[in-house]
Amino acid sequence: MAELRVEGVDVVVHLDRFEALAALRREVRAPVACLRMVHVEESPFSGLSRFRLPGLWWPGALIVGSSRRQGRREFAVVRAGRAAVVLEAEGARWDRIAVSLPDAVGVAAELAGLLLSRRPGNPGRRGAFPASQD
User: Fold this and answer.
1) Pairwise CA distance, residues 121 & 65, whole Å
2) Is the pTM here over 0.70, yes or no?
């Protein structure tokens, strides 16, 4: 399953082989400076577009890939029964990124702390968040 990391000045979502094949990409990046909000969605399917191009939607089980909705670009890697960290950005390639993680609350708290602590000249720190376990 996908892994979320802070690498330099970017938040990076690394995809596993299946997800990369479905989404036609290995990773998704968003600059920390462009992030506006981080939150957790307990039921991430309800807020996401089902139409993915490229990507995959398996009803009630999984959404992987990118979509456009109302002029906004969205990328998701979410699975049923698992909460997702949702990143809202402005001025980045992706306006919204949603990723299911086993410790979504902990990861979102760390990212929120990163957003609160950023200041000019200090856009982020390096670190990795726990990889998903299936």
Assistant:
1) 33
2) yes
